[in-house]
Each structure stands twice: as structure tokens, then as C-alpha cells.
Design brief:
Its EC number is 3.4.16.-. The protein is α/β, with parallel strands linked by helices. Helices cover about 35% and strands about 15% of the residues.
């Protein structure tokens, strides 16, 4: 009897500690609404997750439980790329319940927020990204995956009501590496869980938007002769027919090559795209979009639309031509740091961390993980904005075809258009073409017409339609 009383007491103490931790992380929505000029009625949690056993690595998280029936809806973790860019960008410009009005510091309600159909979790990783912090030192794709797994386990310990929910991981750009590597860690963890409070992570699927995947895309060797970017710019008429023909004729020979003739050809194309001094303000993230440079920090990072080598990188923490005015205004503010429970140890918030001189990029990309992912019946959704010049649709279609041939995956539904249904603002021809889609075993590809690198920011209604159908396992 005494043992039973002791066990009950210990359980109640642990439960009280967990409740206290959640209370500490809960954001005062009344204060938030007053500061941001919003009218949000749900709960928001912001705090830290331990990404290493010794507690020295702390990742900042932001969590929006769905306002209605949260416990009945899936959980989506969303990561941003870079490597080194903050997922707060996604939370406040893409899928969150309120987002910035373009080129302003003012918020507006997001009628297409994903929080209507899912619980949204955003984690800033790896070390030094956003408000996350830890010891200086070398980081890698592998260490980031381990950190993210530890942080995720800590999240489920903090929020045990969600640990059995259907779970999806998504992200954009370099998250094409982060997401598959984390899923690989989860698969391994589920075979041999080490935390008694989280015996299994209920991973169901992954969502990648314009994501680095093949070794020919976002690796150091791939940048030597960025074949897919060159192909994309050639197809879109940014380089001359003469130069484009030379690129086509030399692609196989020049891929992964630092030969002088290959580098000369790449730079020949670069000058035509961006000018001899990179003086053409081309938005490589949406080649038909405007170039926004209205932040005091500037927009010079990765100036070259081809990133032929590292010599075009400089010390700006703002991606080129990207609208981050609102983010910089608010998230460097003392009042916002206090509101979001940000610790003193956390760095000054910037869009993309500059502390990545020692980041080790795996030269194999992440495509090699896909056979394991598909074998474990984890569904894959690939989104591609068709005017993105950074991780262009040409490369995505290239590696999907390669994967399908390698694994002999059957085509379930062939390439076809998909439509935005019934736009109320149009009196006639309401159903408008939104892109193209095809389905192979375990994987769905969806393109978004006239969308750039960040599909959920530029095509909010369309991305919501696609995500909801994916979660319901329905075809477009």
C-alpha cells in the first residue's frame, strides 16, 4: 500500500512538473494580439527543446495546436533549409494563422492557414539558427538529424497528448536534406526506442517543397556545374540559344567537373543571366517575381543565381531579393523575445545564420534514403514551384525519374493538370489550371504554376488544397 502511494505521488509530481513547463512555454495571446495587432484566439507555445542529452544544445520551437479538435488532427513538423535559415520564416510568411502583409511590418489573418486541418510545429535548427543555441563547432547533415530527433522526442515528452497522432515532417529547400535524414533517424529509433516515454513516433509521411535531393543539386560538387539551374534558365530564355545548346551538348561531360572549359561555360551563362557585375536584380527564388531589397541588412547573400562556386557568398544574413522586413522588425525586438520566452543565451535573430563555415554537407544528398522511406510505407509528397531558379523543377523531375527507374516503381496516375476549383472572384471559367501532378508508388509530385522557391508563401490557397488532399489520401 505504501509503495502504491509513493508511486502515485511520484506520478503526480512528474505531471505537475510537465504542466509547469507547458505553462512556462505558453505564449500570452492577449499580449501578443495587443503587440502584433492580431486577433488570434488559439493557444501558442514557444520555448526550447533539448537537442542533446547533456542539455547544452537547445532548439527553439513554436507550436500552434489546431484551434478546433487538436487532438483529433495530425501533427506536422515544418523545417526550413539553408542550411541555416529559420523556420520562423515559414511560420510567419507561409502556413501560420497570421502572416505579414507584403513588404510591411503589419500582420494579417491567413485564411489558408494549415492550422485549420493540422497542428503545426516549427523548430529552428541546427545550432545558431534563429533563437536556437549550443556550443560552437563543426555541424553536419548527420548531426542535424540527430539533434532534430532528440528535439522531437523532447517535444513528445512535453506534449504527450500528441505522441500517438499521425505525424508528418515537411520543409523546403535544404530541408530536402533535413527531412529525409530525420525520417531515417526516426525509422531507426522506432526499431529500438531509448526513451520510455516515447516508444514509437507515428511517422506517416513527408512533404518536400523545391527540396535539395540529388547529389547534382545542392552539394559542393553539384555547384561546380549546376546542370539543372543551367537547364532551367536556358528553357526560360535567360541565356542565348547558342549558349544553351553548348550547355546541353556538354552537360554529361561537365557535371561535377571543375575543368576550365566547363567553368568557363557556366560563367558564360551566368553573365547573361545576372550581368557581368551581377547588376541585374534577378530574384533567383522566383525568376519572374520582383527583387525586394528593403531591409537594412541588404540582400547580397548567394548573389550568383548559379552559385558556381563559393566566391559569390558574402556576409549578409538575408537571402537575395526576399521580403523579410516584418521578420527583422519584430523578431529582434526585446518585447517579442520576452513574449516568446526567448532565453538570454539565444543569439540575435537573423533570417539565415552565418555561423556555418564548418557545416559538412553530405555529397550524396538525400536521394539514397528514399528507398528506405518508401519501403517503410512512408508516403511522400513533392511540391515544386515551376519558376524557382534555386532548386528548379528540372532537377526535381530528373531525380524522381531516376528513383522510379532504380526501384521499378509503377506509375499509378500519369502526368495531368490540376485545377483550383470554383474561384468566387471569377464569373466565368472559375476552374483555373494550377499546375501538374503525377503519382507513382509511394510518391506524388505536384507542380505549382507561377510559384517560386517557397510555394506555401506564394500559393497559400493552392498549397492548402494539396496538403489537405494528401493528408486524406485523396488524388488531385
Amino acid at each position: 500500500m505504501k509503495k502504491t502511494i509513493i508511486l502515485i505521488s511520484v506520478f503526480l509530481i512528474i505531471q505537475a512538473i510537465e504542466i509547469a513547463q507547458l505553462d512556462k512555454d505558453e505564449v500570452d495571446v492577449t499580449k501578443l494580439n495587443a503587440l502584433f495587432g492580431t486577433n488570434y484566439q488559439g493557444k501558442i507555445y514557444s520555448g526550447y527543446l533539448s537537442a542533446k542529452d547533456d542539455g547544452k544544445v537547445q532548439f527553439h520551437y513554436l507550436f500552434y495546436p489546431s484551434i478546433d479538435s487538436a487532438i483529433e488532427k495530425p501533427l506536422i513538423l515544418w523545417l526550413l533549409g539553408g542550411p541555416g535559415c529559420s523556420s520562423m520564416i515559414a511560420a510567419f510568411t507561409e502556413s501560420g494563422p497570421f502572416t505579414f502583409i507584403e513588404e510591411s511590418i503589419e500582420f494579417e489573418e491567413n485564411p489558408h492557414t494549415w492550422t485549420t486541418f493540422a497542428n503545426m510545429l516549427y523548430i529552428e535548427s541546427p545550432i545558431s539558427v534563429g533563437y536556437s543555441y549550443g556550443p560552437d563547432g563543426t555541424q553536419s547533415d548527420e548531426s542535424t538529424a540527430e539533434y532534430n530527433l532528440n528535439a522531437l522526442i523532447d517535444f513528445f515528452v512535453k506534449f504527450p497528448n500528441f505522441k500517438n497522432q499521425k505525424f508528418y515532417i515537411g520543409g523546403e529547400s535544404y530541408a530536402g536534406i533535413y527531412v529525409p535524414t530525420l525520417i531515417q533517424e526516426i525509422i531507426n529509433y522506432n526499431e529500438q526506442p531509448i526513451n520510455p516515454e516515447v516508444l514509437r513516433i507515428n511517422i506517416q509521411g513527408m512533404i518536400i517543397g523545391n527540396g535539395c535531393t540529388d547529389p547534382s543539386e545542392c552539394t559542393q560538387l553539384g555547384y561546380l556545374f549546376p546542370r539543372h539551374r543551367l537547364d532551367f534558365y536556358g528553357r526560360h530564355g535567360f541565356i542565348s540559344e547558342e549558349t544553351y545548346k553548348k550547355i546541353i551538348d556538354n552537360t554529361e561531360k561537365c557535371s561535377f567537373s571543375d575543368k576550365q572549359e566547363c567553368q568557363a561555360l557556366a560563367y558564360e551563362a551566368l553573365v547573361q543571366i545576372a550581368g557581368p557585375k551581377y547588376d541585374f536584380l534577378i530574384n533567383q527564388y522566383n525568376v519572374y517575381g520582383k527583387c525586394i531589397t528593403n531591409t537594412s541588412e541588404g540582400s547580397k547573400r548567394m548573389q550568383s543565381p548559379l552559385r558556381v562556386s563559393d566566391e559569390e557568398r558574402n556576409d549578409s544574413d538575408v537571402p537575395p531579393c526576399v521580403d523579410v522586413k516584418g521578420l527583422y522588425h519584430w523578431f529582434q525586438m526585446k518585447e517579442v523575445r520576452e513574449l516568446l520566452n526567448i532565453r538570454d543565451e539565444s543569439p540575435k535573430w537573423v533570417a539565415c545564420s552565418l555561423n556555418f563555415k564548418n557545416y559538412q554537407i553530405n555529397p550524396n544528398g538525400s536521394l539514397y534514403i528514399y528507398p528506405t522511406i518508401l519501403k517503410n510505407n512512408i508516403r511522400v509528397l513533392i511540391l515544386s514551384g515551376d519558376v524557382d531558379g534555386v532548386v528548379p523543377i528540372a532537377g526535381t523531375l530528373y531525380w524522381i525519374d531516376k528513383l522510379q527507374q532504380q526501384l521499378q516503381l509503377n506509375t499509378i496516375k500519369k502526368w495531368r493538370p490540376w485545377y483550383i476549383p470554383g474561384i468566387v472572384t471569377r464569373q466565368v471559367d472559375k476552374d483555373q489550371n494550377a499546375g501538374n501532378v503525377f503519382d507513382i508508388e509511394g510518391l506524388t509530385f505536384v507542380s505549382f504554376r507561377n510559384a517560386g522557391h517557397e510555394v506555401p508563401a506564394e500559393k497559400r490557397m493552392e498549397s492548402k488544397i494539396v496538403l489537405e488532399k494528401f493528408l486524406r489520401q485523396e488524388y488531385l
